[in-house]
Amino acid sequence: MREYIGGKFSGERAMFAAEASVFTDCIFEDGESPLKHSKDLRLYNDSFKWKYPLWYSNNITAKNCTFFENARAGVWYTNNISVEDTMYIAPKGFRRCGGLTLKNVTFPNASETLWQCKNVKMEKISAKGDYLAMNCENMEIDGLELVGNYCFDGAKNVTVRNSKLISKDAFWNSENITAENCVISGEYLGWNSKKLTLISCTIESLQGLCFIEDLKLVNCKLINTTLAFEYSTVDADIVGTVDSVKNPSGGIIRADGIDELILERDRVDVSKTKIEIKMNGKNAG
């Protein structure tokens, strides 16, 4: 492989269509699309300071790199890319990518990042910004810390473990989502989704978990959660008390207590929902 060490590159398409190369301690300065249409690259300790550095690329490994704020829309239409131990400051990163692996990456400005990507693995990720992972498919996530609204809108086939999501409108319009051992805080969680499963999660949400088809909760806590389950079909096993439940469409809800239960017969068929209040680990009926 060809090696570039300590290089400084500027101008549009500075290393256009580079192949089978290693870039170490290099700086890509002003100039759009420096590595557009590249393939089989290894990037170590490199700095990207301008727009569109990796578009239409294939087989990329990046470690200990920095994507500065002006490296906007940095990685689009790229397949088989691994990014590790990297500071990704620029917004709108990673669009329509396939075979994407992110490990120990920090996104301080993750606005509109990870859109329409497929086959994504994420581990130890910190992100701040709205609309993370819109319309993504086939994601495996472990250790995501996110502060940002509207995450995973329209996503499909996603598993999130050991994560903390501070996010209004998380998982809207999504399908086949599983969150396990997570903390999720934000209004209107999961609206208009299908096959949403929450396992051993702590949830805080105003009017959350509504308008969902096939909602399942296993060993979950719902703290400060009000007006839950409206027009949802639900199978819920809840640890502790729920502040209020309103008009579920059907299913079963098991909890230690429900402070306010709203069942409006002119809105839903109340016979389709079973409520079980647990006492000392047993169902009271």
Give an account of the 3D structure.
This protein is mainly beta. It has a domain at 130-285. It is 0% helix and 51% strand. The protein contains no helices and 27 strands. It has strands spanning 2-5, 8-9, 19-24, 27-28, 39-44, 47-48, 54-55, 58-63, 66-67, 75-76, 79-88, 98-107, 118-128, 137-147, 156-161, 164-166, 175-180, 183-185, 194-199, 202-204, 213-222, 233-238, 241-246, 250-255, 257-262, 273-279, 282-283. The strands form three sheets. Strands 14-15-17-19-21-20-18-16 form an eight-stranded parallel β-barrel. The protein has a two-stranded parallel ribbon with strand order 7-10. Strands 23-25 form a two-stranded parallel sheet. The chain is elongated. It starts with a strand and ends with a strand. The relative contact order is 0.06. Mean pLDDT is 96; it is low at 281-285.
Mean pLDDT across the residues is 96
Silhouette: elongated
Low-confidence stretches: 281-285
- Major sheet attributes: 8 strands, parallel, barrel
Number of strands: 27
Order of helices and strands: EEEEEEEEEEEEEEEEEEEEEEEEEEE
Which class do the helix and strand fractions yield? mainly beta
**Helical segment count:** 0
Q: What fraction, in percent, of the residue positions are helical?
A: under 10%
Our estimate of the beta-strand percent is: over 45%
Span between N and C termini?
A: 70 Å
For the CA atoms, what is the radius of gyration?
Answer: 22 Å
Descriptive terms for the model:
eight-stranded parallel barrel; two-stranded parallel ribbon; mainly beta; 285 residues
